[in-house]
Amino acid sequence: MNIENKLKSRESFWHTTFVVALFVITTILIYLALPGEARFKYEFQKGRPWMHETLIAPFDFAILKSDDELKAERDSVLNAQLPYFTYQDSIGKEQIAKLKSRIDNLEQSSDSKTTANTEVKDQLVNLYQEVFKRGILEQSISDYAALKGKSDLMLVEDHVGRKVPLGSVFSLKTAYNYLSSGQQQLADKYPSWQPLLVKLHPEVYIHANLVYDEKTTDFEKQKLLDNISTSRGMVQEGERIVSQGDLVTPDVYRILESLQKAYENRLGSNSTEYYGILAGKAMFIILLVLVLFLFVFNIRRELLNSKRDIAFTLLMTVVMIYFCRLVVSTNPQLVYLVPFTVLALTIRTFLDARLAIFVNTIAALIVGFMVPNGYEFVLLQILAGTVAVISQDKLLRRGQLVITSVFILLTYVFAFIGISLIQEGNWDAINWMQMRWFVGNAVLTLITYLLVYIFEKSFGFVSDVTLIELSYSNQNLLRKLAEEAPGTFQHSLQVANLAEDAITKLGGNPLLVRTGAMYHDIGKTKAPHFFAENQAKGINPHEEMSLEESAQVIMNHVIDGVALAKKYKIPEMIIDFIRTHHGTTKTGYFYLMSKNENPEQQIDASKFTYPGPVPSTRETAVVMLADSIEAASRSLKDINGDSLSDLIDKIFNSKIKDGQLDYAPLTFQDITLLKQIFLEKLLTIYHVRMEYPDEKKVKKVKRKTIRLERRKND
């Protein structure tokens, strides 16, 4: 006994150490996730009264422009900024030289060479020089994205830029049309030159000499953007910003936001302030984790007994916090796209609704320190998480998660509109584009269904959906039980009905109880004919065996059931029902027979005792009791209320006396309630039908007489 106590004490010590280590590691990880910057000590909202003392500027700071103002200025700068095109003068000179050479060749082959010819040649060359001087674009103006909405461009020649109207430059097509028209006019004016001009084709000499300079354009664009001032005024030290009770108007709100950013940037600039920030952050995290521990310790203490459950809860919390931290560091606006309610939904699915809501609240408070406008974020996430947990009572069907997502979306939308109306005071000021993040959030919440499957396989959890699938009578192992041991299958169904009804009224997991009851005798499929419910009348294989051998065969159905369940990959939670449904009781019939046949010998009770262990949960204890009561009730010769009540009392007293319920969380009130539930259920199952009388020949009587007789009987 001392050794056993020492082992239990050592196991308890290491378990406690493990749990404490988990909370310490969680505290450290959350501490590292929080940003190291200081936080502004005042909370404020646009359109609400300033609830703090009168605020005086503690130092000089700039009034920052709002994002909308900066965006408008950037758009204005970008619209005014002109694209740059490089003028390549060498291309024009080269093409003009080719044109002159061609004209000279055509003149030499012609008989008429007059002074007028020189004038025409000069006019023709001037026409081409004009086109190249104005500039030729390779594509039409509409094909350049940089020229959309522009009326001018910057032409860079010899590293000097000059503004040129778009209407003065040519594309290859417009240059061709312009030159063709000019040559035709010369031909009409000087008919003698018409044969020569016909041989000059403008497309041969036209080449683009304006090239879009994207690098220079971007450089100049960035220069203009960098010159945009992010502030629009200054607040001097000692200047009053807002008095207590004043409304936070849009202008005051902008000044307060500017002060907040300046304050957070300044604080921590020296070592004393820096270490003070770190200490404050540590105190905040320690307090929140301590509150979580106290909640679990006082409200859900059984969670601390399971390393898996407490590790899963803390791991999910840390992962969600770090995921939000990653999103905020990338783009703070995307934080509302994070499916934060997944944390509450997964904990609700596997553990407990109260725990899910509390963990969701703690996580929201922590993440609220990372995001801008933390009050709004915390409020939205607490509301959405609570609604998610309430709307998903049990995850029994895929459609339930879709409905839950809709409820989450509606919660976000209504809460956000409400907060916006409080802050802005009118519908037009609501940022309706924010709704797209809420829609995306609700859609991403559907990932919970996939996560439930992953966590089941990773942590060994069993969800309600899995329990429904396992309890389906056409499931492979149950079909095997129905075919090979039909009597046992019917017994399992009755036990499932008894236990499910009992745990529903007592308080527990009905789906778990029903599934466990369906599988508790699965080991009997290995040797079904050794069990009375599967034996044909008059055939009993135990007659050819010793009492010890018979007892061993009967007890083996527990060991065989565990092995068979593992082979079919049945969850450990269900296998516990197989292990514990007989606890450490004895095979009563064979043990008593052995004692009666050998009154003078000391019988080894271990040869007639089931391996156990005893039940340690309400669910396994209820199945053990239902199994014993259902089996024993079949042996009653006279079934009535008194006999069933005596039987139930006898079985309960026997289990309590043998210590089978020592570790089950059942109170005396629970036991009394269970007795009543089992009795009512058995009376319903074994109800006695009224025996119909044989038909006899009787004298005819009047209806009135019959009525009188009935009234007397009543």
TrEMBL record:
Keyword Transmembrane assigned: yes
Domain HD: 488-632
Keyword Cell wall biogenesis/degradation annotated: no
Pfam family membership, one: HD
Gene3D superfamilies xrefs: Hypothetical protein af1432
Membrane-spanning ranges: 12-34, 274-297, 309-328, 334-351, 363-390, 402-423, 435-455
Keywords: Membrane, Transmembrane, Transmembrane helix
Coiled coil residues, start to end: none
Species for this entry: Prolixibacter denitrificans
Protein's name in the database: HDIG domain-containing protein
